[in-house]
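User: My advisor asked me to double-check a structure prediction for N-acyl-L-amino acid amidohydrolase before group meeting. I don't want to rely on an old file, so could you generate it fresh from this sequence?
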Amino acid sequence: MKAISITVLFFGILLSPVFAQEAITPQTILNQVSAVDPYIREVRGYLHQHPELSGKEFETARYIQAEVAKLGLPVTKVPGTGFYVVLDTHQPGKTIGLRADIDALPIPEYPENLKQAKRWLSQNPGVSQSCGHDGHVAILLGTLKILNDLKDQLGGKIIFIFEEGEETGSGIDAMIEALKPLSIDAIYGNHLRSNLNTGELYIQEGPIMAGTGTVAFDVIGRGGHASRPDLSINPVFAAANVLTGISIAWNNQRDITKTLTLGITQLQGGEIYNVIPNSVFIGGTIRFFDGEAAEKGFEVLRKVSEDI
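Assistant: Sure, here is a fresh prediction for N-acyl-L-amino acid amidohydrolase from the sequence you gave:
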């Protein structure tokens, strides 16, 4: 866990009117970060051992909320497992949001990394914190502890946002609706990056984390017994042709100057070897930085699928 990550949040906020800058210096913040570092490591370790999938972060939410309760701050729950916490200084100032995601991924965790056995290992088989959300939550809770200690020197309000299901998008709509009445002026966040050395920061003008869109459709055929394929319309072969067509069109019809990636992750059809299924499901995601490029990518997928 890198203490430098939490510092990024603080220096970002330091530029906003939330801080009374004549009273709080960067060195004050660094000292606070060093003091809370063991707590951040402890939280991250616990969450790494107890990952939960998107929309099912029940124990994760309870754990975080219990930590918030120790500070005497109210929790506002959002439909699902997400929630937010308001730190109100009761002084004039901006309303700033700080956000973290709380879910994990359906990926088994190996007990060793590239160098040695891991200190913290998932105790939930088949689920792991493979995207660093345990670190994000730990950083946000550490930030909450420090800013709560400094609240008499702050102005405005700080909203600590714990979002359900970032990996699947299950919690974003409910969270946006819940936050609308708060009139937040700006939202800060960060993301762990494993290929950065400790102490290094990566800051970029413009989009830095890709948007995502879901690819999900059925190839419909007509099922039947495998002994008479001539009486069926086999969607397995059709789905194979769709994927081949997509791979060719994707490389030749999209704007190569704009980052747009396609990851097909699911091809599901049939439950037994001697029955031709009625349909085959194809699923995946696209990742993008430009909305127009994303829509053109989806159009390529639609055209190829419909033509075949």
